[in-house]
Amino acid sequence: MGYALIEVRGQRVDVLCYDVINMKALGSNHAVKLKRIFDRMLELIDEYLPDELAIEAPFFGVNVQSMLKLGRAQGVAIAAALSRQIPYVEYAPTKVKQSVTGSGSATKEQVAHMLRQTLTLPPVAEASKFLDATDALAVALCHHYMKGNNVTASGGKSWGKFLAENPERVGASTGAGKKTSVKSVKE
């Protein structure tokens, strides 16, 4: 299972950490693995004090048992956040890929490559080991983008962001000396 923590200040995004929780050494007992996820999530929450949790929504696969195990793991991560009063949001895998690469069908390798360019991450020697970590980083960046802090594909900022950054232009006169009022719009 991959995880990532980012810090956002204005338009600046800093990667605090990203890594994987390796479960192979824990054997085949699924309950032990779920406890490890819960414990590690609490460690990360207590160390970094995040404001929110963004998680990839469960996806439908061919193997029902794998899908159930993944859903349980995601539920444990969500429960850890909720136990510390941290709200969470879920994003579909295609939404995450599209927000980072522009294509909802991008491969894990393409997502990792785009993140290295976007966030100027150093190349990783064992890239395949870190694909789950870069996936988690992609979810965090997707969440940042979905909160209206992104630059759109055309290079322009969102309308809501423009209004927030230019309050003096919101009340610009229209017609015969009337002023227009604009309410903030959530994206």
TrEMBL record:
Its main location: cytoplasm. Binds 2 Mg(2+) ion per subunit. It holds the Pfam family RuvC. It is found in: Cytoplasm. This is Crossover junction endodeoxyribonuclease RuvC. Keywords: Cytoplasm, DNA damage, DNA recombination, DNA repair, DNA-binding, Endonuclease, Hydrolase, Magnesium, Metal-binding, Nuclease. Homodimer which binds Holliday junction (HJ) DNA. The HJ becomes 2-fold symmetrical on binding to RuvC with unstacked arms; it has a different conformation from HJ DNA in complex with RuvA. In the full resolvosome a probable DNA-RuvA(4)-RuvB(12)-RuvC(2) complex forms which resolves the HJ. One of its GO terms (molecular function) is hydrolase activity. The active site is at E56, D132. Mg(2+) 1 binds at D132. Its EC number is 3.1.21.10. It is an enzyme of class 3 (hydrolase). Transmembrane segments: none annotated. Mg(2+) 2 binds at E56. It comes from the Bacteria. Belongs to the RuvC family. The RuvA-RuvB-RuvC complex processes Holliday junction (HJ) DNA during genetic recombination and DNA repair. Endonuclease that resolves HJ intermediates. Cleaves cruciform DNA by making single-stranded nicks across the HJ at symmetrical positions within the homologous arms, yielding a 5'-phosphate and a 3'-hydroxyl group; requires a central core of homology in the junction. The consensus cleavage sequence is 5'-(A/T)TT(C/G)-3'. Cleavage occurs on the 3'-side of the TT dinucleotide at the point of strand exchange.
